[in-house]
Queue: 2 jobs
Job 1
Amino acid sequence: MIDRAIEFATKAHEGQFRKGTRRPYIVHPIEVKEIVSTMTRDEEVISAAVLHDTIEDCKGVTREVLALEFSPRVAAMVAGESEDKSRTWMERKTATIQSIGNAPREVQMIGLADKLSNMRDIDRDYPKVGEELWNRFRMKDKKMIGWYYKGVRDALAKDFQKEPVFQEYCRLIRKNFD
Ligand SMILES: Nc1nc2c(ncn2[C@@H]2O[C@H](COP(=O)(O)OP(=O)(O)O)[C@@H](OP(=O)(O)OP(=O)(O)O)[C@H]2O)c(=O)[nH]1
C-alpha cells in the first residue's frame, strides 16, 4: 500500500513545486512519510502521510477517491489533514491549533511530521534567503508564522514530549523563531 501511495502522490503532485523554489513538491510528502515511520509501523498511517496534501492541493483527488483507491481509514486521515481553503489563513491556522491537541493519534503524528518537514525547509532556506523567505508565504509576517508553529508545538507537547522528532521540532523552532 505504501508503494501505491508513493506512486499515486507522485502523479498527483506532478508539475508542483515547493513555494518559491524549483524543488519538486513530492519531496515533502516523502519526507513526511519518513518522519511518520519513526513513530509507527501502521501501513495505513504511513500511506496517509504520503497522501496528506493530495485532497488539499491536487485536482480531482477527493476523500471518496482515496477511500476507493486505498481505504476509508486512509481517506479519513487525509481528510483530517486538509484545511478548508475558502477560509482565511488566520481562521485555518487557529482551527488547526485548536483541533490538533484532541485529534486521533495518527492525525497528530502526520500533522507533527508535516510541520517538522516545513521547519526543516525553513531551517535550510532561512540562512540562504534571509528575511525575504517570509514573502513566500501567504502570511508574510515572521512573528505570525512563528505563532502558528509554536501553537502546534504547545498543543502536542503533552502527548509527544518523548518523541525524538518532536524534540527536533522544538529545537528548530527555538533556533529560527526565538
Ligand atoms: N516551509 C515551507 N513550506 C512550504 C514550502 N513550499 C510549500 N510549503 C507549504 O506552505 C504551507 C504554508 O504556507 P502559508 O502560505 O503560510 O499557508 P497556506 O498555504 O496554508 O495558506 C505549508 O502547507 P501546509 O502543510 O498545508 O500548512 P501548514 O499547516 O504547515 O501551514 C507548507 O507545506 C517551502 O518551501 N517551505
Job 2
Amino acid sequence: MSLKQVDLSEEDLAFHKEVGLINRWWQSPKQSHVQRQIFHVIKAEKHRFGVHRPYTASDVASLRSSLGVEYPASVQALKLWSLLHEHRRNGTAEMTFGMIDPVMASQMEGQQTIYVSGALCAFSKADCIGQDMSDYPWDTVPKAASTIFKSQVYHDARQRQDRMRRSKEERATMSHARDYLLPIVADADMGFGSQTATMKLVKRLVEAGVAMFHLDDLSLSGKRFTDGGGHTVVSTREYLRRLGAARLQLDIMGAETLILCRCDIDGAQYITTDIDPRDHPYILGATVDVEPLASLGNASSARVKEWKRRAKVKTFDETVECNATEEQITEYHHLLKSKSVCSLQERQRIAGQVLKGKEVFFDWQSARTCDGRYLYSPSVQAILDRSLAAAPLGDATWARMDLIMDKLVKFHNEFRKVYPERLFACGYSATFPFPSMGYSDEDVKNFHRSLAKLGIVWQVQPGFALQGLNYTTKKFSSMFGEEGIGGYVRDIQEPAMKVDTDGYEKMQWSGGYITDAYGDLLAGL
Ligand SMILES: C[C@](O)(C(=O)O)[C@H](CC(=O)O)C(=O)O
C-alpha cells in the first residue's frame, strides 16, 4: 500500500462514469428484465409480487474496486440466456444431468449445459462423504465447478491448436468441431448462512466460471432426505434477502451469471419464523387445546406426526371453514381478497367479524418445535406466492416439486400470467415412481416435452452420476472380474475406439499434441 494525492474532480469523474456504465448495463437485453419486471406489477401488489433491485447504480459503484475485472462467467451466462430463451420460444428444453467429473463432462455430446450438483459433491467431493444435507463446506461446489470450467477451457484450446496446425483442406475433411464450453449451472443450496456468506459464495461461483446457480429458501441445516422429517424453510423476507445479496454481489462484480430462484416449499414441514405475514396463510396451528409441541422436546418425526393428529392441526383458513356456514366462508374469502397480504392477527379479526363473535380455537404458538420452528403447510398457492415475490430478483425459477402434472401445470400457468417470458427449471428425482403415480409409458416418454410446453426450459436429472454410474460400474465390475481383459476388449475398448469417444479423433483427449506444441515453440531457447 502506498499513499497518493487524490484529485477530487478526477475521482468524481471516474465514479460518475462508472455509475453511467452500470445504468447502461442495466438497460441491456439480459439485465433489463430485472428492472422491467416491476412494471408488470400493480404498485399496491408489490408486497406479493416482489420488488427489483432495492439499490441504485451509485450504491453499486461505491462498492466496486476501481480495477474493472471482466469474468468469463459472463460470456457463459449470456450464452445460456440465449439458449434458454430459444428453448422458451420453441417450447423445447435443455436436458442435462448432474456431473462433477471433468473427464465425463468433456464427453457430454447431447447436452448444452453442465450441472454441478450439490448432492453429487456431497457423495463424492466433500471430505466427509454422506447424504446431501447441504452440510458440506460452502466452497465445495465452486471448487468442483472451477475444475470443470478449467477443463473446458483446456479442451477448447487443445481442439483449436489441433485444428490450426492443419491446412484448410485438411480441416475441411475433419468432422465438426466440438463445443466444450458448455455453460455450467451450479448448486448454491441455501447460500450457507449470512448475507455475507451468500455474497462470498456467489463471488466464488462467478470466479469459477459458473453461468447460472440456484439459490433456495431452505434454512441452514433445514434440508432433509432422511426420516421423512420434512424440510425447514426460512421466511419469505429472509429468502428475498438471500436473493438480494446474490444480486448485489453479481452487480458489484458486473457479472451476467443468472440467478435461478429455487423454492423448496413443496417438501417443507416447518418454517423458522412467523415474522413475515406473507407466510401466515400457510402456518399451522392446533385447533384443540393440547400440551405444546415443544413440551415433547426434540421429538422424532413419528411423535410430531402423532402430536399433529391429536392437536388437529390446520391452517387458520381451514379452521374458519370448519366453523362457518357456506355464506360466511364466501364472505370471509371475499374480505381476504381485498388485502394483498393478510396476517394471522388480521385474519382472526376478519373471522370474528364474519362469525359474529363465535370463538375459533387456533393456537399457532403451541405448534412450535422445541427449537422454535413453526409447523408449515405447503401448497401450490404457497409456492406461487413466494416464487412470484422472488421473481424480480432472479432470472429464472425452479419450484422444486414432486412430479405431479396437475400441480406443475397450475404453478407454471399461474406464474406465467404475471411473468409471461419467465424461464423455468426442474429436477427429476432418481427414484420417482412414475408408473405408480398413474403415468403411462407414453406419458413418461413425453414427460420432458410436456414440461417444456410449460416453459420449463432447463431440466436436470442430477442423480445420473450416482445411479447411472453405480449401475454401469457394477455391471462392468462383475463382467471384468469374471472375464478379464478379453471382456474389456470386447465390451469397452473395441466399441469405444469405434464410436470415437472424443468426438473427432481417437486417443486425442489428453492432448499430447498441445504438449508437443509447447515444446516445439520453446525448442529454440
Ligand atoms: C438438485 C439437488 O439440489 C442436487 O444437489 O443435485 C438435489 C437433488 C436430490 O437430492 O434429489 C435437490 O433437488 O435437492
